Description:
By secondary structure, this protein is mainly α. The protein contains six helices and two strands; from the N terminus they run αααββααα.
Amino acid sequence: MLSFSAECLSSSLLSKGIKIKIYRAIILSVVMYGCEAWSLTMREQHRLRVFGNRVLRRIFGPKRDTVTGEWKNLRNKELNNLHSSPNIIWVIKFRRKRWAGHMGHMGERRVVYRVSVGKYEGKRPLGRSRHI
């Protein structure tokens, strides 16, 4: 699947608009699956930004310098100017806040609410668990 999308994003047969739609619909949805429950570290945030920029560089390709005529890779600011979609980290944080709002409206009887808040019922048995 990933090799298919990598070949698809670097193909000259597809327009950049189609490539961006593939990126948003397929790649980002797979990458951010379940992101509401993640605890992002700085390293993971950096890796997600690098991934997003790498995919965008593959979509937009290198640009020819007007002065020297040499091909060069796009810088991050140039990529952000070409692609107006929000940053992956911002989207993840927004989804986490939205999920927290949903959980805030849930009642205390809902299992998801109890697990996230930490209100467990009952006691765990003493000793080591048995594996039969």
